[in-house]
């Protein structure tokens, strides 16, 4: 039998870098718990092997892999939990690492938070090198940790400046005057800072953050405060776009919202034209039009008491979630050129759809109780209403989670395809935003209960690293 740790790590790393590695050939021999107990790793109670198998089990890109990977994930998690409870974690593994891996699947982890955690838990005494024939042996790990910490803190300085610019932009556009709107610059800046983290991605980070704030404002207008007249007025303004003067504004706050959308989109389009070598403003206008039309449809359902079919709900629910203006607009500033035929391709739009499905359904799982009280439509409530008498909410939630899992698997498969016309940096953004929505909604509604996301945002942007001091080396 091949080495478990090596096979599992190789499978995970190769697959996540686009290699078509078979789960059956790489991990099939470990599908049963007995394979561990019968191995030398099992005799030694090797936590590292279990941990790598558990991580590998999550990298699924085909539905037919479900049986093997789910079995490995199940028994490896069980044995890791047993080791934690009985204090039998291998000495070379930090029990906190095991606990973290069990609580945070890789599709819920964000790069910059992972970087922070890795730096803070890096064991500087693990590696030593002789720097020169005339100098003492110095822990190379200590230098690596120092460089990583310096880079992290330098990035935080950049992020803090960008956050200040974002707060100034909010004031310039008078968004803080909208008493109904949740203005949350840090929470809206956190996703791009945690995923588009290189300093040179400044323009993409700012574009995504601004559109995130705008989407939240528009959502609050439709979901909380706006009258039917105001909602219909905003939809018409966005549909008319450059000809919006023919429509006029029914209220000052609609004017503030529309001008913020219009001016920000045109500013982004001007910057993107230099990267893309073409105008993309028509696409931005279309993204916003699709979003507000979908929000209007949902508002009409709530006002009239109409119960849509599940297909009708998802047709509106996916664009109303708002990732079109937030993500697709920002992709034009990530770096690679995105020709029109790529943006309109089936592959590009399938990635967008699967990312949207994950976001919408994860949001619905966390918000269905609140939305039931408010008389709103939600996929969980809709499926429950369509169930035969006696159907349970837990059964419906399991069905929704299966749909989320299916879309997540399909998205990862598309992202990792070798023969893709969508540039790799753009595919990475689709996957990273899928991870963001899992981070925001896996346990709570990260926008409705902002405490957890504020903590995560501060960890990326403001809070200095907490690195234990190591003994001085002589």
Automatic annotation (TrEMBL):
This is Ent-pimara-8(14),15-diene synthase. Pfam families: Terpene_synth, Terpene_synth_C. Residues 3-102 form the Terpene synthase N-terminal domain. Its cofactor is Mg(2+). Residues 171-407 form the Terpene synthase metal-binding domain. Belongs to the terpene synthase family. PANTHER family: ENT-COPALYL DIPHOSPHATE SYNTHASE, CHLOROPLASTIC (PTHR31739), ENT-SANDARACOPIMARA-8(14),15-DIENE SYNTHASE, CHLOROPLASTIC (PTHR31739:SF17). Keywords: Lyase, Magnesium, Metal-binding, Plant defense. One of its GO terms (molecular function) is magnesium ion binding. GO terms for biological process: defense response; diterpenoid biosynthetic process. InterPro entries: Isoprenoid_synthase_dom_sf, Terpene_synth_N, Terpene_synth_N_sf, Terpene_synthase-like, Terpene_synthase_metal-bd, Terpenoid_cyclase/PrenylTrfase.
